[in-house]
## 1
Amino acid sequence: MTAGTSFDSPLFHYSFGPHRPMLRVDPGARLRITCPDSDNALADGTVLPASRRQRDDATALFEGNPLAGPIEVTGACPGDEIRVELHAVTLDRDYGQTLIAPGHGAVPGRMLEPLRDDGSRESVPRHMFRWQIDRAAGTARLANPIGRAPVEVPLDPFVGCIGVCPRWGQAISSLYSGDFGGNLDVRLMRPGATVHLPVFREGGLLFVGDLHAAQGDGEVIGGAIETSGVVDCTIGLERGTGLKSVRISSAERIGAVGVGGDLALAVQHAYGHLLNWVDDLTPLNRWDAYNLLSQCAHVTIGNMLESSCSAAASVPRSLFSISDV
């Protein structure tokens, strides 16, 4: 593949797994990867046809978060590390959407539903918010708010889903995440960052999808500003690093991702993975490093809606004398 090659996956998958590669690239390849939105809609508003969707006659698939790929990386072997350097996430249409619905979100219904004067509770509505995206201004404005006051937010596009084939040949829904990556929804995966992914099988099998125009920590309503776009990235390969879980680095910060059955466990894992990374990168005593994380690290909450919650713990690179990671 030549640098800057466009890749519009002939088939999109709804699971991270040992699927037939849609593309093979050499390390160092630069790609522009087309990504539909989480509901399978493309830039022109049409939806992916059945011929371009993963099918499994033996079981039902959750047909959300369609994943471009897998992309096989030549020479990648278990114990290696795939590095995806994110140059740009380019939104390719002027609207996005976010669903509010009963039971769809992180805040319990009893806390969401205000009491009326008569003692009854106002029910959570079912409503598809439509956002008008102004790429030139870098903003998104609600086109159909439930109330009268206008709502506008700054754009901060990033990649929601990224990962490789899980260990042991598993196939895991694009709803979920783990040490292979997955539906992480961590806002640190924005342009300028590099996502470090462990390799569990030959070729790695990289998947990318679920672009967000903006999202707060936790995606608490049950969705971000869901939209489509193109991911401009370079796919690198580091051999024999023994990486075991996802890391994220940028010019400003280094971070590690944790996944767990609840948010507390995800944060614990993120801090544990980050401590190990700092221990490897720097001459600091491990317990001094642990103390430093306690004073200087930040937590970014990713997905807290499914049974595999995600979070990233990160620290400023300026705290250490490190160069390439």
## 2
Amino acid sequence: EQLGRLGPKLIDQHRAMLANSQAAEMLLSHGLVEITRFAARR
């Protein structure tokens, strides 16, 4: 179930990066931090 929610979040992240290429690196970093924090809690 948790993994099922990852797909839509990654798609949203990808769309945000495409919409704002100047901030793509920051958006990617933020998204990876969120994934890492979630994984660390498990």
